[in-house]
């Protein structure tokens, strides 16, 4: 009797896992949840606000605008642009002077597009981004403490945090203003949110 009992127990030991394994495999085949075949998608990105890398059919790497997959920049130009930004930031620290008030009137579509291009759609983290000319900017002026205003250069600089706030939120920016900030040689605005003295305003609302 004991021998029969032991034989029965051994049969159960082998058959139960086998049945469990069979049903598990059958379930995976139907639902497609087999862990051996599942993997994360590393070839692209769906959703999110930051640029991502893809490889074209010639093997070139591109950084893609997550809001428009037909808009992209070549990945191999990142290094030179990063070096330019680092040197530019270093120069700004030496040439920027304090200003009482500066305001820039912006062209919403052109400005946002330029922020995206300069930052590789948020893929990089450069210390400063330069936004240039009449396509994104209508004009800028400064105002001294006496209230006297003058037209200044229609280029401007943005630090990374401010640029990413605008890009991530896809903001329609019509005015960018700053109190107690700095400008390169007094006439190219440097909107630097890391400057503890500066107050930056986007469309009239305080940013920092």
UniProtKB/TrEMBL annotation:
UniProt biased composition (Low complexity): 31-44
Signal peptide limits: 1-20
Keywords assigned: Signal
UniProt region (Disordered), positions on chain: 30-60
Name of the protein in its database record: Uncharacterized protein
Classification of source organism: Bacteria, Fusobacteriati, Fusobacteriota, Fusobacteriia, Fusobacteriales
């Amino acid at each position: 009797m004991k021998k029969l009992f032991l034989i029965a127990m051994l049969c159960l030991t082998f058959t139960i896992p086998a049945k469990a394994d069979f049903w598990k495999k059958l379930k995976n085949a139907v639902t497609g949840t087999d862990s051996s075949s599942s993997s994360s998608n590393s070839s692209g990105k769906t959703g999110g606000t930051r640029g991502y890398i893809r490889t074209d059919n010639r093997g070139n790497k591109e950084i893609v605008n997550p809001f428009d997959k037909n808009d992209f920049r070549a990945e191999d130009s990142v290094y030179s642009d990063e070096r330019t930004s680092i040197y530019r930031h270093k120069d700004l620290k030496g040439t920027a002077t304090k200003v009482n008030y500066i305001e820039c009137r912006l062209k919403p579509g052109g400005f946002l597009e330029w922020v995206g291009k300069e930052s590789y759609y948020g893929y990089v983290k450069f210390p400063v981004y330069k936004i240039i000319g009449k396509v994104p900017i209508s004009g800028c002026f400064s105002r001294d403490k006496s209230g006297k205003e003058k037209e200044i250069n229609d280029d401007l600089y943005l630090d990374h945090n401010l640029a990413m706030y605008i890009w991530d939120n896809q903001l329609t920016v019509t005015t960018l203003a700053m109190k107690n900030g700095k400008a390169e040689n007094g006439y190219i605005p440097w909107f630097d949110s890391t400057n503890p003295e500066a107050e930056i305003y986007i469309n009239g609302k305080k940013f920092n």
